[in-house]
Design a protein that fits this description.
SSo0622-like fold, alpha+beta, homodimer, 44% helix, two-stranded antiparallel ribbon, 8 helices, 241 residues
Chain lengths: 241, 241
Amino acid sequence: MDADQQWKKQCLNKLDHSKKSSVDEDIEHVVILLNSCEEYFTTSSCSGRIILIDGVSGSSDVHKQNCVWLFVSHQKCKSEDLISGLARSSADAVLKFEPFVLHVQCRQLEDAQLVHSVAINSGFRNSGLTVSKTGKILTAVRSTHGLEVPLSSKGKLLVDHDYIHFITNIANKKMEENLRRIQRSVLEAEEEGGEKQKEEKNKTTVYKRRRKREQHCQTDCCHGDGSSSAPDLEDCLDLFT
Amino acid sequence: MDADQQWKKQCLNKLDHSKKSSVDEDIEHVVILLNSCEEYFTTSSCSGRIILIDGVSGSSDVHKQNCVWLFVSHQKCKSEDLISGLARSSADAVLKFEPFVLHVQCRQLEDAQLVHSVAINSGFRNSGLTVSKTGKILTAVRSTHGLEVPLSSKGKLLVDHDYIHFITNIANKKMEENLRRIQRSVLEAEEEGGEKQKEEKNKTTVYKRRRKREQHCQTDCCHGDGSSSAPDLEDCLDLFT
């Protein structure tokens, strides 16, 4: 077993620390696709959800774990669900739509760039990389698509039922758009995969030359300038095995 | 003029493409601090704002440029401001609180890691790096702190004035917390600066050795493995001049 396979095996053993211990239905194919690649594994994910939480909205640092979850849905919902959830509010209830989020650990920087590029092209504009102190490279796929509506204060409803009906429609429309973007990201990834295969056919010589240079440098070179540590995406495709 | 200075000069010529052509008052010191460093320059920024925009909330891809801006404030606001803005709504008005956002172009990956680390430690949890196709490295500083409340539909108000008063308070509290986080990021950056100076004193020999290795590798080495292209943050500090 080579070092990369070892890396992947170690990582897979650590998978799924979530309470739920399963992947949301709407993104199962995305998670399976990524985890089938040597370069990637997913560390956490949520397909998108409509939540109603009860907490103290004025506090400077609201942690969800200190709140009561009145309602959660990973699908579209009905205004009746929210109304019955709100009936149990004793503090400040807030309705939120939280879009798809995915954290992908990546073997190399260029692998992370590829996921990031697919995410941006699919409409997940708040995506970004994280390079940790220990050199761990993560791509976080995030959307700008949100909704955060205070609905009660000290358990007292602040709006009428028509408004709750209106806001349910908005949250459901955001859920639909969210699923469209997830589907777009799968198509984008498949397109990148096709491009990659073409590149591999055309660049066998370049690829071999690069591998030689890499072997030469791996023990000797730690820091290049910006352009060498962050090569063009096109440059990376032929290294993407 | 060496290559790095040339890089910085070229970049500075391109600064501030915003309509406003000036930096928001509350973050002027952050932008000045970053631009005084050789390794960084800021490409866009917003200190945080409360906005009221009028558009079509049901459309799948809402672009702010297609909306009417009924009200904008980079400071705390009064419910009267929002009420008079809403009086001019003819479509679907939405109140948003948008927190501090900052894009910093960085010379090297390790410089970007440092900004990212300061941002995360200050509470800007949605921050992330972008490495473009051309090798340009950006750190985006982003917060999870938001608010997005639909208030009118086809020009008709959906809530009462008490609710608008309530929501104004929430938006203002978010603005206060936002400014606290910005201040925390300046303190974090100063702390990192102090650590950096200590590291520089202790690691002169290591630093010189690294520079030698870099010079040796710059023309020869393009791609290391994950650990070499993404060194520990501690490793980077002595390269942070």
